[in-house]
Amino acid sequence: MLQSWFTRPLWQRVAVGFALGIIAGVLAGEQAAVWFKPLGDIYLNLVRMIVIPLVFFTITSSVAKLAEAGNVARLGLRTLFWFVATSAIAVLVGIAFGHLIDPGMGLSNLPLGEVKPRTIPSPLEVLIGIVPTNPIKAMADTNVLQVLFFSGIVGAALVSLGEKTAGIRSLVDQGATLVFRITRWVLQLTPIGTFGLVAWVVGRYGLSSLLPLGKFIAAMYLACLFHIIVVYGGLLKLHGLKVGRFFRGAAPAMQMAFATSSSLATLPMSLRVAVEKLGVPQSYASFAVPLGANVKMDGCGAIYPAIASIFIAQYFGLDLTVTQYVLIGLTAVLGSLGTAGVPGTSIVMLTLTLSTAGLPLEGIGYIIAIDRVVDMMRTMTNVTGQVLVLVAKEEGILDQAAYDGAIETRAPARETVLVAAE
Q1: CB–CB of 130/341 below 8 Å?
Q2: C-alpha count within 13 angstroms, C-beta hemisphere, residue 31
């Protein structure tokens, strides 16, 4: 039986854990936090344990290889272009579903939750904050952007020194291989972690606590599903890629994102599915996926602020002007890039959006109570966008056979980067 369990695809095992978690949460109620949440916490600790080593070794190794191939700048700019483009579309999707469902209409006397004040850094502060004063402290604090920056510098230096550091480059490649193996072990526990986390969420909230804000939750879930299926699916179709195959390959990362509500905690799984299931070269995936986990926020940074702004305006009886819609769109598109690496991205983004559009900040207190439930779907949207294969396809470096499921790619110790013809 045990052997049969582990021969099943991971997404199926995670789905079983998810279903059992819902049942356990309903049966246990508030006791789910005592009985099942520790399983989820241990799993999250294991995942967080491998995030920084994974980022350091894979980024250092991939930057060295991409620099040799001479396509770092082009890949980086094209990646950022698609990040911004899909975020812009996500804002429009959020505004459309906000007005289609009208989540704030007919509501009054909602309980006001406590909102901790958030300090919104200026773009200059964010830019300065990317550069670590102490790389070791950045690793200890799990500051992924600072670790990413330092790793990129190390990778570039290895290329510059050439054969003088051949031994260190080999060590870095071996370190990446080692971390990938540990990652595979940890991710086999995803069904158990999903069970514990889902059971806790279901037991904590229950149906009754969600009913008053049911329209808001529905607007978020429907908008995110539309963005995932129609927008992402449409872009894949336009690039000549099989849509169903993408979602089958990305399913484990999407499920994990939904259960953990954390792009960072999902990073090891996202990297694994991008390389092994979707045919993205490890050298490019190791650069793009960690970057996306910090700045690619279609759910948290675009759809959520758009719908929440409409909800708050409707709740307070305010009519949004065309100027306010433009400000909401610009803030949502650029804000996720400007708040990269700041803890609590969704609340920071919403605070920034409301402030820019001149809407009452106290409105956040009315939706904070169901933030975790909404966060599950918006994080799944983020992660789905983070593993999109559009750039790899455009650059001609996508392993089409692996994407189509003919073979399964493994993360090799050394990998040659294919450079697309100019």
Answers
A1: yes
A2: 5
